[in-house]
Amino acid sequence: MRTALRRGAVCACALMLWAGLSTAEAGKPSDQESLRLEARIKHWRTLGNVFRRAGVEDAFLLADRYTDQGRDEDAIRLYAEALQVDSWRFDKQLKLARLLAAHARADEAAQKAGEIARYAHDESLASQAEALLQQLGRPPADRSAPPSVPPGPLTDAKLILVPVGPVHAHLLEELRLALSWQLGLHCEIRAQSIPLPGADRPYADAYLDQMWRAVGPTPGETAWAILGESVRATLGMGSRHIRRSDLLEAVLRARRQRGESEAFRDTFTQLATAGQYDTGKLLATLKLELPPPTPPLRGYLGVTGADLFAPGTHFVFGSATPGFGIMSSFRFFEGANGMPLDAKTVEERAIKQAISSTFFLLNIPRCTSAGCVRAYAHSLEEHDRKGMVLCEWCRRQLQDALSGSGQGGF
Fold first, then answer.
1. How many angstroms separate the CA atoms of 24 and 91, rounded?
2. Long-range pairs, 142-147, Cβ under 8 A, ≥24
3. What are the angstrom distances between the C-alpha of 360 and each of 33, 269, 326?
4. Domains contained in the chain, CATH given
5. Is the dihedral angle over the CA atoms 310, 315, 321, 325 positive or is it negative?
6. Phi, psi of 332 (to 5 degrees)
7. How many CB atoms lie within 10 A of CB 265?
8. What is the model's pLDDT at position 146?
9. Is 319 helix (H, G, I), strand (E, B) or coil?
10. SS3 content of the chain, % helix, strand, coil (to 5)
11. Neighbours of 54 (CB within 10 A)
């Protein structure tokens, strides 16, 4: 009898233990799910900023899981990586700030909390950030606009602005003054510009795609049936290897849309001479045309009025590698509803991009502060939302880079 009771008690305890473990594990992510996310993040890390921004939710999700699993250091690193491309996610900024505070990184936590309190539109997040500042023994955040930061000490470090193709001379001078003032660099403008080659992605290609979708052959008809042999002969189309632009023009004519066909041809011809330029190719050109930078020269920043893109993107504001950068003012003249902008707004947009590109050519990693002039901008709206001054972390990184003492980070 005692043996049976003992066995029953053991079975009951085992059942309770199993049930407890099952309940506890139910609230945690499965190892399989974490592995799946980690595999996705491994690929995500290889992508450019545009595609990393598109897939940033996976990074935030995995960072949340790391936090739940007690893997705080992994969570801190991943939150920081994700916030580099989406710094306005203040809910994640707050999670990162709390982790930093829990790991005795009070200064970094206070900086994050202050930015959340200042910039977050969600009053709940702002209040939680203020509570964290109080917990850290720091004063409340100043929600007024940050004052203009005086220039850092002028160093012997030098930067050369290089005109690439046609560039507004006044804008170049404004960039020179701003970079000298904000970054403490000796900034000069190269007298000789580097000519632009032919466009790598003509606007005519995009226009042709748009027109083909709008007026190309419908599912119930074929282009060849519309054209007919006589039309093909008139256009000198002896084979089926016909340019799509000629084919589309012939389709418009065959439908007796002569006015539209002429307008299409005029627009297509005009757009064929303009387009976007591949940043990778322009950076390669800079490296061929210019001698390698050696101290005190820290690098070259190419400035162009042409539209830029990187493979897989619609457009980019700029790009940089250590020692060489390229930025464009093309998109900065764009206003709401296509209206022109005042010169001050254009200059501010260009200065923000010039500072960001300069940091990258100095090999300084992207920061995670939403209000910093270096915050990643996925659109002109986000670009305009950024501040005009560096955050404290970026100022320290700049000082370290120019003094040669190395760089820190998460």
1. 26
2. 142/114, 142/118, 143/117, 143/118, 146/371, 146/387, 146/389
3. 35, 38, 10
4. 27-135 (1.25.40.10), 158-199+277-403 (3.40.390.10), 201-271 (no CATH)
5. positive
6. -80, -10
7. 15
8. 52
9. strand
10. 55, 10, 35
11. 13
| Sheet (strand 186-189) strand order | 186-189, 158-164, 297-304, 324-328, 318-321
pLDDT in tens, 15-25: 333 333 333 34
Beta bridge partners of 328: 304
Which residues lie closer than 8 Å to 78 by C-beta, 6 or more apart? 41, 59, 62, 63, 66
Residue at token pair 């820290």: 298
Q: Give CA–CA dist 389/393, Å, rounded.
A: 12
Three-state DSSP state, 350:
helix
Phi and psi (nearest 5°) for 195?
A: -70, 150
Low-confidence ranges of the chain (pLDDT < 50): 1-29, 147-148, 150, 224, 229-241, 406-410
One-letter amino acid at 307 equals: D
